Amino acid sequence: MDPVLKLKHTIDALFGVGISRHLPKQIEFFFSKRTGRIREVYHKQKLLCTLRIDGGLAITPYFAQILMKSKKFKENCIEIDNDSKPFVEEGRSVFCGHVVWCGKNIRIQSDVPVLYKNKVIAVGKAILSSEMMKEQTIGVAVKVRDSLKS
Fold it and tell me: Which residues constitute the signal peptide according to the record (predicted)?
């Protein structure tokens, strides 16, 4: 299967139909020497994402900002308040009490871009679903994997 087509199908499956239209044109793939699978995807020498063994994507804040051009993609994001912004930029977890808004497509263990004033500052893995984040005021909502400062 064509690697670009495979990446587009994966993005559409994980984040919503039509979001892959915002994928940059000049992308570079790196494949595993042993298995032949797609390992990493780059655009202008910047890492966009890494494909996981389970079929998921580990996206970077740079790639999340590119995908933010799509209005549908914002339903996979959370918005945080001013108090937690410096900690999240350092790579610390996002707590439920600091979530100002969260999209309806967030599910447990899904990749979640963390926004501050519509700018991606980090990407992490959701610990709770969007409904649970709205209901709770204590506890970790997103475990940050990659932030702007790291």
Answer: none
Q: Identify the band that residue 132 occupies on the pLDDT scale cut at 50, 70 and 90.
A: very high
> Taking 80 as the threshold, does the pLDDT of residue 42 lie above it?
yes
DSSP state of 98: G
Q: What is the mean pLDDT of residues 137-144?
A: 94
What does residue 28 show for φ and ψ, rounded to 5 degrees?
-120, 135
- Output the 3-class SS for 62-82: HHHHHHCCCCHHHHHCEEECC
Q: Which structural domain, as residue segments, surrounds residue 59?
A: 3-67
Q: Which amino acid makes up residue 8?
A: K
Which of 67, 98, 119 finishes a domain?
67
User: Contacts from 132-136 at CB under 8 Å and sequence distance 24+?
Assistant: 133/78, 133/96, 133/99, 133/102, 133/106, 134/99, 134/102, 136/96
User: What pLDDT score was predicted for residue 139?
Assistant: 93
Say if residue 119's pLDDT is above 90.
yes
* CATH (domain of 42): 3.10.450.90
Residue 20 counted as domain residue: yes
